[in-house]
């Protein structure tokens, strides 16, 4: 069976969930071979093996942390050349897309970004994408070279499928372009203890209607009662009420949780672009005409300052 | 020496209008209102600010697109860019990201550059990969997705807010930069700017000017094929209740019914 290269997104050896989802999708096309780079690369092997990686190619070098994107492209290209895979799958993060794109040009292949599903087809993998702010769903293929496809988080269920996961050292020679963009400092984002926005099963978001940074405590309390991640509209972010890293929408994160709760958000097309594929959508808005109500499974026309705290209390009571 | 800045801008269908596909499954650009991609306005804005700080700078805006794409160039010129290049050729219809990056890279080389500034993503394709592709093709550093950018003594510096960390980046010119919508509001064209734009030069190039063969681009030359595009069925109408004092509890009841509680 053909091998499929899977680029691993991990933090110091802890594999992030979208990579495990990629392994599920990769198994539909061939045998997953994982590529893990940077500090802790070898520590990823156990989790990857448990989810179907037959081999885990690892490399670590200071270049991965000290320079932007290109060293990782060099390494992925080395893996590509040693494996000759049927496809290359990369998680759809901002960095993942850039790595995938540069690899595609180097190996003379086409690239598809932000797939939300993947199946084997007669002419290679078929990717489903959600386009025009999720107004359309397309099916596409790479028609030249080895398909390079980036896949969004929450696109597949994580399925354990034990495999060998043999760790092999990948030898990488960096190109002279690898050190072009120096990372002179890095400030890690502080953890809130809440789930990662793009990976969360439930997302609770607030918009301009929340009316102030201090009021976001109401949104956070609801989120915590459900074990959810917190999101925000761009209006709330631009007002400085919530960090940009929590923005949902076209220029923020794209989320596809089981449940999305929007409070004080009108539902502009750019916001919808980032949440429209959520399974169940719920909104609280005092304007019955707000476009968000066109999307909802359940909507409450009312003041979020009344409805949301009552909801939070009721959830806590029911959960006991 | 003059700092030569090339800003890549895309002409896109208006996102607030009705966007759809043409019969050949390319984005319909004929029947819809188009405009300069809002996210590229941020690129033009940063170019203007960098040019202001430089002793001597010249901003060229570059687009690859159909006849109407001139509107996008005009807008950028009215914001304050100095001149424009329009790459236009019937054979470009249906070009994908790989092809677009080839055309942009050839045009940027022909124009001459020290700094390329792009938007973070186009609002129609939303791939966000063209700047990285252009950097790969030009063989110069990519300094992308910046929420803050400055140029001094032949070095570009910026801040990239990533998923897990915020990074400070630095590279020597020439380089390719892309900026996010966090980089600072884009200015509105002034009346004076709009009038001045009418007199600014717009150069048109076709594929032969760039030594690109028709087979390398367009729908035929594309590296990807769209097999189908289906309009997403409208979500089935949900239940909407007016809060009469029990809205929160009713919502909890719904969530419990869906097994979320
Ligand atoms: C290129 C581009 C990219 C963009 N990217 C994004 C993006 O990534 N994400 C994003 O969100 N937006 C994005 N936008 C902005 C988008 O167009 C909207 O401006 C934004 O989403 C509006 O945010 P909002 O819904 O919070 O605010 P508003 O549209 O002002 O809506 C606020 C809502 O709150 C309701 N409300 C007020 N008070 C209360 C109350 N007490 N109780 C209940 N309801 C109340 C109001 O009825 C209203 O419906 C982008 C725009 C552009 C041009
Ligand atoms: N046809 C085009 N003409 C000029 N610039 C483009 C074109 N397509 C993409 N770009 C640039 O590349 C950026 C990212 O686009 P994309 O990768 O398509 O999302 C845009 O913000 C533009 O700066």
Automatic annotation (TrEMBL), chain A:
InterPro entries in alphabetical order: DHS-like_NAD/FAD-binding_dom, ETF_a/b_N, ETF_a/FixB, ETF_asu_C, ETF_asu_C_CS, Rossmann-like_a/b/a_fold
- Quaternary structure (record): Heterodimer of an alpha and a beta subunit.
Keywords noted in UniProt: Electron transport, FAD, Flavoprotein, Transport
Primary role: The electron transfer flavoprotein serves as a specific electron acceptor for other dehydrogenases. It transfers the electrons to the main respiratory chain via ETF-ubiquinone oxidoreductase (ETF dehydrogenase).
Give the family per the record: Belongs to the ETF alpha-subunit/FixB family.
Cofactor requirements of the protein: FAD
Give the note describing cofactor binding and stoichiometry.
Binds 1 FAD per dimer.
Q: Write down what this protein is called.
A: Electron transfer flavoprotein subunit alpha
Entry's Gene Ontology molecular function annotations: electron transfer activity; flavin adenine dinucleotide binding
List residues of the Electron transfer flavoprotein alpha/beta-subunit N-terminal domain: 4-187
Binding positions for FAD per the UniProt entry: 208, 233-234, 247-251, 264-271, 285
Q: Which species does this protein come from?
A: Streptomyces flaveus
Q: Which domain of life is it from?
A: Bacteria
Instruction: From the UniProt record, give one GO term of the biological process aspect.
Output: fatty acid beta-oxidation using acyl-CoA dehydrogenase
From TrEMBL, chain B:
Which domain of life, per UniProt? Bacteria
Extract one GO cellular component term from the record: cytosol
Q: Name one GO molecular function term.
A: electron transfer activity
Annotated keywords: Electron transport, Transport
Q: Which prosthetic group or cofactor does it need? A: AMP; FAD
Q: Which residues form the Electron transfer flavoprotein alpha/beta-subunit N-terminal domain?
A: 24-214
Q: Which Pfam families match?
A: ETF
- UniProt keyword annotation of Electron transport present: yes
Q: Which family does it belong to?
A: Belongs to the ETF beta-subunit/FixA family.
Q: How does it assemble?
A: Heterodimer of an alpha and a beta subunit.
Role according to the record? The electron transfer flavoprotein serves as a specific electron acceptor for other dehydrogenases. It transfers the electrons to the main respiratory chain via ETF-ubiquinone oxidoreductase (ETF dehydrogenase).
Report the protein name in the record.
Electron transfer flavoprotein subunit beta
Organism, by scientific name, is: Streptomyces flaveus
